[in-house]
């Protein structure tokens, strides 16, 4: 990889009814990984598992031309309050079906059949790529290390999502 990596502005949203900045290990793991990779943290927030509050935060980030990537953690399961997929899916212009498939494949090696309860998803909205990960720290590590680190690296070949959100590129590269 002889060309320099183009850093992206990434916003991180933790969806939780119980976490705060001190106890948000999943959001912290994502922030540590994205900054270590050379990206910039655009903003980090924590919101309760409420479809409208989640949607409002992510919609504002999608509308903000400085935010290129949104990563959420939490609210992707099947309990009564898990509503991240419902909040986010209506905002997406295009869905990345392969993201959830690949995540569950990687996660299956770690947690077995329990991975089928993950409703993680990815998509593109207004030149912003959005990824929704489960709320466990392990799932965030799996998602970042196994998928996002490469797909958000502008040098990754044969294609990556970074080159879709970098101004002036708008294509795989």
From TrEMBL:
Gene3D superfamilies: MoaB/Mog-like domain (3.40.980.10). CDD domains: MogA_MoaB. The keyword Nuclease does not apply. Keywords: Molybdenum cofactor biosynthesis. Pathway: Cofactor biosynthesis; molybdopterin biosynthesis. Residues 11-155 form the MoaB/Mog domain. One of its GO terms (biological process) is Mo-molybdopterin cofactor biosynthetic process. GO terms for cellular component: cytosol. SMART domains: MoCF_biosynth. PROSITE patterns: MOCF_BIOSYNTHESIS_1. May be involved in the biosynthesis of molybdopterin. Belongs to the MoaB/Mog family. This is Molybdenum cofactor biosynthesis protein B. It comes from Vreelandella maris. The lineage of its organism: Bacteria, Pseudomonadati, Pseudomonadota, Gammaproteobacteria, Oceanospirillales.
């Amino acid at each position: 990889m002889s060309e320099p990596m183009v850093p992206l502005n990434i916003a991180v949203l933790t969806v939780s009814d119980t976490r705060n900045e001190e106890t948000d290990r999943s959001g912290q793991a994502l922030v540590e990984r994205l900054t270590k990779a050379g990206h910039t943290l655009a903003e980090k927030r924590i919101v309760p598992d409420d479809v409208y509050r989640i949607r409002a935060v992510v919609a504002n980030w999608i509308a903000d031309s400085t935010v290129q990537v949104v990563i959420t953690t939490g609210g992707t399961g099947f309990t009564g309050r898990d509503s991240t997929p419902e909040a986010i899916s209506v905002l997406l212009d295009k869905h990345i079906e392969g993201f959830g498939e690949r995540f569950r494949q990687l996660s299956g090696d770690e947690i077995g059949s329990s991975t089928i309860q993950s409703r993680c998803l990815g998509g593109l909205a207004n030149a912003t790529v959005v990824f929704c990960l489960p709320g466990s720290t392990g799932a965030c590590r799996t998602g970042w290390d196994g998928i996002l680190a490469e797909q958000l690296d502008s040098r990754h070949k044969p294609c990556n999502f970074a080159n879709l959100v970098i101004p002036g590129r708008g294509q795989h590269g």
